[in-house]
Amino acid sequence: MGAKHFGARVTRLEDPALLAGRGRFVDDVKLPGLLHACFVRSPHAHAMLRGCDARAALIMPGVHAVLTADDLPAPMRDAPLPLLLPSPALNAAPTQTALARGEVCYVGQAIAVVIADTRYIAEDAAAAVIVHYDVLPAVADCRVAAEDGSPGAHNDLKTNLASTFRLAYGDTDAAFADASHVFREELWQHRGGGMAIETRAVLAHHEPVSDLLTVWSGTQTPHIGRRMLADLTGRDLQSIRVIAPDVGGGFGPKAIFYPEEAVIPAAALRLGRPVKWIEDRREHFLCATQERDQYWDVAIAVDDEAKILGVRGRMVHDTGAYVPWGIVMPYIAASTVPGPYVVPSYQLETVVVLTNKVPTTPVRGAGRPQAVFAMERLLDRVAHELKIDRAEVRRRNLIQPEQMPYEVGLTFRDGKPLVYDSGDYPRGQDDALALAEYDDFRERQKAALEQGRLVGIGLANYVEGTGLGPFEGVTVRVLPNGKVAVATGATSQGQGTRTTLSQIVAEQVGCRLDDVVMTAGDTAAISQGVGAFASRQAVNAGSSAQIAGQAVRQQLIALAARALGAEETDIDLDDGVATAQRGNKPSIAFGDLARLAQGVPGVSLPIGQSAGIEHTAYYTPSQAAYCSGTHVAEVQVDAMTGGVKVVRYTVAHDSGRVINPLIVDGQVQGGVAHGIGNALLEWMQYDANAQPLTTSFADYMLPMATDVPTCAIAHIETVNPLNPLGVKGAGEGGTIPAPAAIVAAIEDALAPFGVRFAETPLTPERIVATLRAAGAYDRLFAG
Amino acid sequence: MGKQATRVIVNGKSYARVVDARLTLADFLRHELNLTGTHLGCEHGVCGACTVLVDGRTARSCLMFAVQANGCKVTTVEGLAPEGELSVLQQAFIDNHGLQCGFCTPGMLMTLTELLRDTPDPSEQEVREALTGNLCRCTGYAGIVAAALDAAQRLRGAAAKPGAR
């Protein structure tokens, strides 16, 4: 049977409601008696709390309560939020308490919450809460924090070093001793935010008759949130339901369990009224986790032919004030460096450092953009020094398809050996270069220069471990009205999960796409769930949808054969009808089969028949699924202003078999936009006291429609042999190599001035400063 | 808190309310009138998710008070097409994958509705420049730009035939 839905460019089932203004986001949920919350947050990056005076706030009309840590239920009152990803490599594992107790360690840390009739009144009252602080020295720069004698980010910790670990294989000492050439680079990638256009949001409601606590949360991980909430309130898991309704973008920061997700339910329980909190944009800048801050000091050893002999170095990772996701991100970064290349020896020392800034946890890319930046900058340096074309340097070092599966020699963050399951990296690079017309670029560059325009090209390759476990589940159930209900722990913040899973189920079950009824992001729908991160849902939930769909297909066929008096091999399932392909082709609709499967009260079911037509599958991947790609960026740089325009962008992307090219292209294009932001615009600035300075969209630049070209995208589909769909993740690959490719392109455009760049974002200010230091303007004006 | 009477025609329907003078137009639409299609992404006038038409021109409903709209005609995303139908532009968003999470989408639709009304045959650059007041974090804008150009073409085709919307 040819595929009808799987692989087709299906328009999304999610779209009509969202386009008509009938989406259902957390702030759209209306409940009678609803109260509104506003948090009182620390204005200091580091301070001891010396008391909180809420009297002025409490007498304001419309104010119902001002809660501090003492007012929270046990164990939430005292216990730090659970550490989601513990690691033996963590020296200190601080996580914050729901409301601060004793000490605050970053600007924006929640100290109290005001509950009032309206958000307006709650904000007025929050401003009237007086908190007394003893301000302590704060540390903003992780390199300073890593030194002896630095101020402590936490009063009770002897060191700011949360973790030091080494990833290594092969003999780097020998490789570097014997190498013809060794090149060293010091690199920095600065932190930015997730900046989903919908901010975080929590609405909690306790219904006393059923004793059910329902929490609507703009989260990527509702099942994890429910577990956390059960731990923090002492309630049974069954008495908590967490719903992630429509969520307006995630990008990583919404995968974390935050203090507000504990405090708002606690407030609703205490006051016996539903309570809602909608994060404002300033709070998102202050309190939603961020990413990228890493300082790399890396060197590469190569022979005369530019073949890599080894890579080694040290990386300092700023984890911010707490480590809610352990050391996952620096670990991913450290294990991503070798990428698609044969690197015979490798060693990286990683230091994870606490500072008085908001914690860093994965943001689209999760440590990989930094690692790819390090590797690709080193390869560009090799090309420059040895005067070999940059693409050729890479070509000589790429892992060949016949080397698959390729064992790198490290352990990945999934706990399994880092083994690339499949891929054709040379073809990916060749296809991208062909699509980008790379070979003709020097002519284009020359012609542009004659017109006074500086244009440049850059490329970058990457491999990304996607589809991480532990599992994701899907239940498929045929309903008496003939529709097919699908429930999953997977969640969607815009990835088109409903459409993708519907395609898989409809393909297997033989129903119309429109007849799939999806429930995602609701802990009441399926007992176990994990959620959206690590580009994992197509692999995990997609495979479960396939397995559950196949099982339901078998049940439908068996039941239809019995009902129609036919052989199972004669039954066809299509458009929600089972038809026997014999005789006068009798048929029976899925709805009628579902009724049959419910049996007759008191009457035994036929032997071999189970209750209802349904199956739940929890696919558990044996290891990560490694997707890969090549990006080629073409930019135009205005040397006078430092302005950069990305004029052309090309991607070759291998995410295995493509379930829906429309959606995958959208993920790649959106990821590239995020990468352009990281490369050129997004600068989350803190002063020396760790005071955030960019807390609005006027100060922090997101890419606009004029900043992001429409990408040319080539799909390389190497089938992943490890999961039943043959798929790999697609959500983050667009972002990962973009900063490396764009910075390389800028450097190429400015090659006449001989400048080199080692950081992102590369803002106009930095470009002008670099050109000035290189004497570029003297030459320009002299000319 | 000062209260003030305000009368606004929203999507062709007249509403009279007495509201706090400081209530934003966005909160008025969302929470007084239950028209929750208008979204708030920054509340400081940059992201454009809250864009509505006030007397036919795009406006940031987060930067206006409800009382400032007194006597005005406001169009929100809910007013772009009759219930159960989609406008040409909305349909073009589906066909060109012009949205992912859908949160910025209402603002995008309002901005582009104005653009296509005033500039029926926009260039890609004109579309992109019109969209600089609306941030999208999901799509990288490609599908939105394609949808706008596609809708413009369809609308021009329709305008050549009588009776088309």
Q: What do these coordinates show?
A:
The complex is a heterodimer of chains A (783) and B (165). With 783 residues, chain A is α+β, with helices and mostly antiparallel strands. Among the domains of chain A are: 22-137 and 219-275, Alpha-Beta Complex (Aldehyde Oxidoreductase, domain 3), CATH 3.90.1170; 398-402 and 423-464 and 626-783, Aldehyde oxidase/xanthine dehydrogenase, molybdopterin binding domain (Aldehyde Oxidoreductase, domain 4, 2-Layer Sandwich); 469-619, Aldehyde oxidase/xanthine dehydrogenase, molybdopterin binding domain (Aldehyde Oxidoreductase, domain 4), CATH 3.30.365.10. Chain A contains 20 helices and 31 strands. Chain A is globular. The N and C termini of chain A lie far apart (69 Å). The mean pLDDT of chain A is 96. Chain B has a 5-stranded mixed β-sheet, with helices on one face. With 165 residues, chain B is of the alpha+beta class. In chain B, helix 2 crosses helix 5. In chain B, a hairpin with a 2-residue loop joins strand 1 and strand 2 (13-20). Chain B has 2 domains: 3-79, Beta-grasp domain (Ubiquitin-like (UB roll)), CATH 3.10.20.30; 88-159, DNA polymerase, domain 1. At the A-B interface, helix 1 and helix 17 of A face helix 2, helix 3, helix 4 and helix 5 of B.
